[in-house]
Write a structure and sequence with these properties.
This protein is an alpha+beta fold. The protein contains 26 helices and 20 strands. It has three domains: about 130 residues, Alpha-Beta Complex (Penicillin-binding protein 2a (Domain 2)); about 100 residues, Arc Repressor Mutant, subunit A (Orthogonal Bundle); about 400 residues, DD-peptidase/beta-lactamase superfamily (Beta-lactamase, 3-Layer(aba) Sandwich). The N and C termini lie far apart (about 110 Å).
Length: about 725
């Protein structure tokens, strides 16, 4: 009998080892999971609940402003400040901190409103506040706002506010109001953003005692804030502009614009002129930190992102020593003219000095006499902005543009002679020059300021023909022809200056022929003094309309006081257009302007004929109607006044400075004080005297007369840049 042999089964040793290894790994994993859950569970839970999307910007001081010679014009004055940052504190916690802080500092209560007082009264008297709403009131409101808990709570709170009496509010003590003023600052900020509680007149004692008690003042900190400081007082103040206060923050009308550019609501920004125009340059780069919080809003960690840097500095083209002297001259001559002319209407005068080759504004001054509202006394006020924001009839100063327009249109040729005599157009008053000059060519027409020569010129431009006591017919298109030509010189158009709110002037609406004649002598359309400065610069430099600018350079800020950093951007001369003229045309106008000031018989020879700086220029007197601040006193018939102007450049052979002077409403009747010439003479004297003085001291190396030597290259470069933009 065959017996079957039974087979013995077994697991290989290596497979057992594999099972054992897997068992060990699972055991270790279970142990690790236990450790994570039991030992570190709370820590990891907090990590999961963290949110890292709260970025806070810390403001930095604004950039400084310097004049062309490196003198500080606008700076930042450091001042002690106390701030509060809401790191997720509850209402009662903030109120408690406000009460503690009120015992350490003095806080003005003038900004506390009645609504603030009522809110505070409710917080201090919750039980009494609750009694002001009866059960019946609640039922009525619940019925009205059924299902809308948010609106119901709002209505109950408003009703409570309405029922707080004056007697109850009077229970608030002076100390209560001080606490309220501080609490009000606490709640006006934004979460995790420092809010200034006090930065005016923080005494060293207050600063020290708050610093010593920060451990019991949650969210409160002491720091250094800044405010704008104007080294030259009110000199040029209106042009420099203003900055909003920490209370004002961002202007409401520009809130979205600034918020989209990473500003905070309580940031201080430029709100007028240079401060506003160059806001993005002056504002600087704010320091950024990331606050890591949990879901409850508690700050777990603060992580720096970028360091802050104060704003870049501006170097202005203005010479502040010259500016101060020009303002002094205007004040003195304005008072003198007002006294001698005997007119109550004269109240202002303006001066612009410009480099005719670069457009750099060397001085932009204006003064206005106003009544102090408190004292009723007349005071002198800065009105430098009037050079670009107000326009007037300027008179004969524009005659250089009229002559050149005549050349361009073929109405006259160099050397054309007209007989200067009174013109009588049917149905209109006699139009004439201030004297009958007889035969005059174009150059002497400028020298003697002949009106009739200009009349004959524009009559030819309009295709008309003058006959004594006969109607005058002129093609209406002549108005556009003359105005378009004037615009080539900067008259009646924006000059392009780097300041906001520039006005272009008023263009007369009528196209009657008589007004065409008035337009030719500057007594119809109105122009600003800055336009006059640009216009005479075109004459001075030979035909290039330069864009005026008041900022010369943008520089990196340096930590050292009052030192200039590396140049970031230099404002290059910009030619807006070239007046297309044939050879010799501009020479004749320049010769006419030279004779005005350097030859006997010229309208400005009396004051300028002996000057060693050899000026050239053109005077202007315009008959106008008064339209100033006292206009309402005269009803429908404002009085006739005379506006005075003067455009000039010097030296006549190689100009380095161009000047425009404008004195509106200078006098009435025939009493001409000549304030335009008196101011202009003293201003040019001051410019060249200052230059000589600096030359003696060895400081003239700072002066910049940057002529555009090769204008074709400049124009070609600008045209290439324009094409690239397109």
């Amino acid at each position: 009998m065959n017996r079957k042999k039974k087979k013995k089964t077994h697991v290989p040793f290596r497979l057992n080892m594999l099972f054992f290894a897997v068992f060990l790994l699972f055991s270790m994993l279970i142990l690790r999971l236990g450790m994570v859950q039991i030992v570190y569970g709370d820590d990891y839970k907090r990590e999961i609940e963290r949110t890292e999307d709260v970025t806070v910007n810390s403001p930095v001081p604004r950039g400084k402003m310097f004049d062309r010679n490196g003198q500080v014009i606008v700076d930042n004055t450091p001042q002690n400040a106390i701030t509060f940052t809401n790191n997720g504190y509850k209402q009662d916690e903030m109120l408690e901190v406000a009460e503690r802080l009120a015992k350490l500092i003095h806080k003005d209560t003038e900004k506390v409103q009645e609504r603030d007082k009522k809110d505070y009264w409710i917080m201090k008297n919750p039980e009494e506040a609750e009694k002001k709403i009866s059960k019946k009131d609640k039922e009525k409101l619940e019925k009205k706002y059924e299902g809308d808990q948010k609106e119901l709570d709002k209505a109950i709170y408003q009703l409570t506010l309405d029922r707080i009496t004056e007697d109850e509010l009077s229970e608030l003590t002076k100390d209560d109001l001080e606490v309220l003023a501080i609490y009000r600052e606490f709640t006006s900020g934004y979460a995790l953003t420092p809010q200034i509680v006090k930065n005016k007149e923080v005494t060293p004692e207050e600063f020290a005692v708050v610093s010593e008690n920060l451990q019991i003042l949650q969210g409160v900190d002491t720091t250094t804030d800044w405010e704008r400081y104007y080294a030259f007082g009110d000199t040029l103040k209106s042009v420099l502009g203003n900055v909003t206060s920490s209370d004002e923050g961002l202007p409401a009308e520009q809130l979205e614009y600034y918020m989209a550019r990473d500003y905070s609501r309580n940031d201080r920004v430029g709100k007028s002129y240079i401060e506003m125009q160059y806001e993005e340059v002056l504002h600087g780069q704010k320091a950024k930190v990331k606050n890591v919080t949990d879901k409850a809003g508690n700050v777990l960690e603060t992580v720096p992102i970028t360091d802050g840097q104060r704003g870049k500095d501006l170097v202005l083209s203005i010479d502040m020593d010259l500016q101060k002297e020009v303002e002094k001259i205007i004040e003195e001559e304005l008072r003198e003219a007002k006294a001698s002319a005997g007119t109550a209407l004269l109240d202002r005068a303006y001066v612009v000095l410009m480099d005719p080759h670069t457009g750099e504004v060397l001085s932009m001054a204006g003064k206005k006499i106003v009544k102090d509202k408190e004292t009723g006394q007349s005071v002198m006020q800065d009105d430098a902005l009037g050079n670009i924001t107000t326009t007037y009839n300027v008179g004969s100063a524009v005659k250089g543009a009229t002559i050149l327009t005549g050349y361009k249109t073929g109405a006259i040729n160099p050397g054309t002679v007209f007989y200067d005599r009174p013109l009588k157009i049917k149905g209109t008053p006699v139009k004439k020059s201030w004297r009958n000059f007889g035969p005059l060519n174009d150059i002497n027409a400028l020298k003697f300021s002949s009106n009739v020569y200009m009349f004959e010129t524009v009559i030819n431009i309009g295709g008309g023909k003058y006959e004594y006591e006969q109607p005058l017919r002129i093609n209406e298109k002549a108005f556009s022809t003359v105005r378009d030509s004037f615009a080539q010189f900067g008259l009646g158009v924006r000059t392009g200056i780097d300041l906001p709110n520039e006005q272009t002037g008023f263009k007369g609406m009528s196209t009657l022929p008589g007004f065409m004649l008035d337009l030719s002598i500057g007594q119809y359309d109105t122009y600003s003094n800055m336009q006059l400065a640009q216009y005479v610069s075109v004459i001075a430099n030979g035909g290039n309309r330069m864009e005026p600018h008041i900022v010369k350079e943008i520089r990196e800020p340096l930590m050292e006081n009052n030192e200039l950093g590396p140049i970031v951007q230099e404002m290059e001369p910009k030619v807006l257009n070239r007046v297309e003229l044939e050879d010799g045309w501009m020479d004749r106008v320049q010769e006419g302007f030279r004779r005005v000031m350097q030859e006997k018989g010229g309208t400005a020879y009396g004051l300028f004929g002996n000057k060693d700086y050899k000026p050239a220029g053109k005077t202007g007197t315009a008959e106008a109607f008064y339209d100033g601040p006292e206009r309402s006193k005269f009803g429908k018939e404002p009085p006739e006044v005379m506006n005075l102007s003067l455009v000039s450049y010097a030296p006549s052979e190689n100009p380095e400075v161009a000047m425009a002077v404008l004195v509106p409403w200078a006098y009435q009747g025939s009493v001409d004080h000549g304030a335009n010439k008196e101011i202009g003479q003293r201003v040019l004297d001051a410019y060249f005297d200052l230059k000589k003085e600096r030359h003696k001291k060895g400081d003239d190396a700072k002066e910049s007369v940057q002529k555009v030597e090769n204008i074709d290259e400049v124009l070609e470069g600008q045209e290439d840049a324009r094409k690239e933009d397109e």
